[in-house]
Write a structure and sequence with these properties.
5-stranded parallel beta sheet, binds iron/sulfur cluster, single chain, alpha/beta, globular, binds flavin-adenine dinucleotide
Length: 478
């Protein structure tokens, strides 16, 4: 433990953001990192608890008090090694994880959790800046070949772990660039994409082969993977969007959030409009935008709409507004349901809760508004409030209502795997084995829509399961 009295002496002080008026003019990251002396004092706040609840909160089981101590001691290199022992890509989670570890931190009982996520990010950013993060190729090859389908965080973590123990790994990705939702869902202002590119370079040097613009089930058959590889890992995400089933939803101004976000991410990557938007440009410039869905995807649509110069942005959520502050006695150390205001919300949006959408109004084939009604929730049951109908003027309606599970057509139909009751690929979290021999599944394709940190955990654990299945034993961590 760095300093016994640190938590008594120093207040929690987190990273700050650039001014919203300035940051909405660009798509770059805008978090202002801690100066090093401040960060070390923040690390000194860690109490090295007898039961470190932060560990339980963290899906990858980061050894948080250990690296807090090392940062306080300015032993950055060992802090990096420790961090990498549980997480392949801390620069991703250090930027976009909702940080369940901080919710679980003992100091969160008094709303002063250690700034774990900022410390994580600083350790790994420093590692890259100092040139400490280099390829870790295996000492010897096993002669086994593994195909990983999907290059999101689950597929990348799985591929890196497997390559490092000597398997020959090929990652198949249907998109033109690697990264899954990290690349084309999450906007650059939350996470810039050069972070993915440099990991890909590292992984190639470790022996991973990437095949982009290659959809398994279309460009190559699943049968050919079976024939040419000893194991196949399905890490294709949960791509099936929840649809809006109301009259008028077929109008061209009602669009999926992922189409909107992908186009902007491609423009940011330097693609021209033909490549970024082959089926026509979808932009919010000068439009009255309504975003349906109150989660991360919806929030990313808000931030992107404001950057594109929308006239107004409204975000709707069907669930009631959660409390500003949780009841710690009931929720800690678990993830609490409470009002979350993202940096995108701070940039300008009107948020509304407990709203049910009823009909998209249109004129001459164009969207003109969204007809809604307020609802009441009692014991999990929703009831419309009579007389509360209202219409929001709109030119563009973005659907950010989540994903119902993995796409079945193509890959999964050809693989012939069984599904669980929720429609995800059935596999447990010990063997990660599907109903088909030597076919494994992890990430959102197995667990349903989730978080990057869960995808990394599953990718790592699935790698161990594959290694064990191929070699009889595995030294990879779970
Ligand atoms: C807009 C948005 C914002 C989000 N923001 C956050 C956030 O801030 N923090 C957070 O923790 N989580 C966030 N999430 C959730 C997070 O991105 C996902 O949980 C995570 O990316 C899942 O990882 P994955 O590897 O399982 O799947 P994905 O990231 O979905 O990757 C799957 C990949 O498989 C590819 N693929 C699918 N089928 C095939 C095939 N047949 N052949 C070849 N390739 C195929 C896809 O093209 C894709 O690249 C967000 C999600 C969205 C949509
Ligand atoms: S729970 Fe908080 S204070 Fe305790 S060890 Fe973890 S980070 Fe440190």
């Amino acid at each position: 433990m760095g300093k016994e009295t640190g938590f008594l002496e120093y207040e929690r002080k987190d990273r700050t953001y650039a001014d919203p008026r300035e940051r909405v003019r660009h798509y770059k990251e805008f978090v202002v990192p801690h100066p090093e002396p401040d960060l070390r004092l923040q690390a000194a706040r860690c109490m090295n608890c007898g039961i470190p609840y932060c560990h339980n909160g963290c899906p990858v089981n980061n050894l948080i008090p250990d690296w807090n101590h090392l940062v306080y001691e300015a032993d950055w290199k060992n802090a990096l090694e420790n961090l990498h022992s549980t997480n392949n890509f801390p620069e991703f989670t250090g930027r976009i994880c909702p940080a369940p570890c901080e919710a679980a931190c003992t100091l969160n009982i008094v709303d002063q959790p250690v700034t774990i996520k900022s410390i994580e990010c600083a350790i790994v950013d420093r590692g890259w800046n100092e040139g400490w993060i280099v390829p870790e190729p295996p000492a010897r090859k096993t002669g086994k070949r593994v195909a990983v389908v999907g290059s999101g965080p689950a597929g990348l973590a799985c591929a890196q772990q497997l390559a490092r123990v000597g398997h020959s790994v090929t990652v198949f990705e249907k998109s033109d660039r690697l990264g899954g939702l990290l690349r084309y869902g999450i906007p650059d202002f939350k996470m810039e994409k050069h972070l993915i590119n440099r990991r890909a370079v590292q992984m190639e040097a470790e022996g991973v082969t990437f095949k982009t613009s290659t959809e398994v089930g279309v460009d190559v058959s699943f049968a050919s993977l079976r024939d040419n590889f000893d194991a196949v890992v399905l890490a294709g995400g949960a791509e099936e969007p929840r649809q809006l089933l109301i009259p008028g939803a077929e109008l061209p101004g009602v669009r999926l959030a992922m189409e909107f976000l992908t186009q902007q991410n491609k423009r940011n990557a330097g693609d021209d409009e033909v490549r970024a938007a082959p089926r026509g440009s979808l932009v919010a410039t000068g439009k009255k935008v309504v975003v349906i869905g109150g989660g991360d995807t919806g929030s990313d649509c808000v931030g992107t709409s404001n950057r594109q110069g929308a006239e107004s942005v409204v975000q709707l959520e069907i669930m009631p507004q959660p409390p500003e502050r949780e009841n710690k006695a009931l929720t800690w150390p678990h993830w609490p349901l409470k009002l979350r205001t993202s940096s995108s919300h701070e940039e300008g949006v009107e948020r509304d809760w407990a709203v049910l959408t009823k009909r998209v109004a249109g004129e001459g084939g164009e969207v003109t508004g969204l007809e809604c009604v307020r609802v009441e929730w009692n014991d999990g049951r929703m009831e419309e409030i009579a007389g509360s109908e209202f219409t929001i003027p709109a030119d563009l309606i973005l659907l950010a209502m989540g994903f119902t599970g993995p796409r079945k057509a193509g890959l999964l139909e050809q693989a012939g795997v069984e599904f669980d009751a929720r429609g995800n690929v059935a596999a447990d979290t010990v063997r990660y084995a599907t109903s088909e021999a030597n076919v494994f599944a992890c990430g959102d394709m197995r667990r349903g829509q989730s978080l990057v940190v869960w995808a990394i955990r599953e990718g790592r654990q699935a790698a161990r399961a594959v290694d064990e299945a191929l070699m009889g034993v595995s030294e990879l961590p779970r």
